# Entry
Amino acid sequence: MKVKPLTTHEVGSLAKPNWRVKALTGRTLSDRDIEQAAEWSAILELNGDSKQLISILIKRENFSDQDKATIRKFSGIFGTRLLEKSGLDLVYDGEQNRIEMYEFPIRRSDGFNFLGHVRSFDNKYYRKARCVEKPSVRELFHVEEFLEIKSYASKPLKVPITGAYTIVDWSFDEHYMKQLNITDTDFLRKRRNVRAEFLTDVSRELIYPNIRALIKAGAKYIQIDEPAATTKRNEIDLFIQSVIDSVGDISNEMFLTLHICFSDYTLLFPGIRKLEGIVNEIHLEYANRDTRELGTSSNKRKGYKLLDTLKNYDFIVGLGTIDVHTDFVEPAELVRDRILYAVNKVGDPEKIFVAPDCGLRTRNWRISFEKLRNMVEGTRMAEKILGLR
# Structure
């Protein structure tokens, strides 16, 4: 699939607005919650389109199921418009329709039982599950969501989907582990084998059918999110095989991004070469490790050392240019310099996509909007210098 040099996109999540969270969890809305909905309606130039939302929110509480469905839909419209207004080339809805990246797919799969809530890194909570039988699809994860967003989006969509390795790594395994006996002399080898079996089944029975259904529904850009990819250094090969099994025979029917965040990326090499020709873009985090100083020298762009390795692989570099863990709004000039440095290292602007390091769910909408607009502006500056505009 032919793509534009320095294509801009957001990695996945945006924070959910208070009016959505409170309404869907049975809490009473405040005046400020309603004011924020009206303010963002104006910022995003939704004009009269959001009158229905405001008329529901002013009830403040006791929302009907239909009210909640409408509120959820408008949350998706707002998230999509925010990304479009920021100027991104590829958008989605900031995962406004989803509870959380692990719990959302597990809820729609058979073979798992939820146990209770656990805390994630940013003090959010999600329900962790145990695998009790071979996983299978009960309900396709994202097709309905994709078609709804497509109905009101004005730009191409990129659908994020949680990868098999992360689902397996974040689940308790009670089904496959039954094959093991702790007294076996080759316990570790058998333990690895059942882990591989669990991964194969999740890849082929959950992820592949959902990606195939999305392609059939018209999705052209799909992103597999794998935050757990490098958490076990002796399983990198299992992770890579899970991506291959998840994509199967449909890799040439889409543009596929693999997103891995906040880890020791050196563990991926050289094994990740097996994904050449299957994965189009490898998106990693760089800005979080970088300085805030302007310039295109190596001592200024300390966070981008991995490009020395990645440039030798046949992937588009998904370049993290925005730190998602701070309210510091990167100047457009800083984004520009990060891009120019990357292009110089890789040698071809067609092999660079521009994005934040990760999803922006930890930032409020004002900060996220400013960061993304500056990211797009910095990309335009780089394009001009490179003669692409």
Observations:
- The chain is about 40% helix and 15% strand.
- The beta strands are 7-8, 109-119, 125-137, 158-162, 172-173, 221-225, 255-259, 281-284, 316-320, 352-355.
- The radius of gyration is 21 Å.
- Residues 187-216 form the longest helix (30 residues).
